[in-house]
């Protein structure tokens, strides 16, 4: 039983190897055909006058630049789409912050001075700022709850 299993695995591996080799042979054949076409085009180009060679070179460069331009336009569209998405998220978060601030105005008057004295420094990616948070010890559970939510 174990020997048969090993033989079956070996045959599967051999079959996979042969399929891979065939795919690689086909790929090599396609590359050889492409190389022959490029060589023929190159030889034909050499037989042309220098003016025509320059014109063909310019046409190829224009084609390359056009393709590059299309790629850049596609990238720009993706970035603009991402920017719109981020702006929508920012509006949502701004609304949440406003709602939170509005809910904080409902807090009893004796607690407001404590919360208004809290200062938070925003951390930015491009710089290594570290924020400090000032609060009263009795407000710690409320602060933790608000940080979590």
TrEMBL record:
<keyword id="KW-0175">Coiled coil</keyword>
<feature type="coiled-coil region">
    <location>
        <begin position="3"/>
        <end position="103"/>
    </location>
</feature>
<protein>
    <submittedName>
        <fullName>MYO5B protein</fullName>
    </submittedName>
</protein>
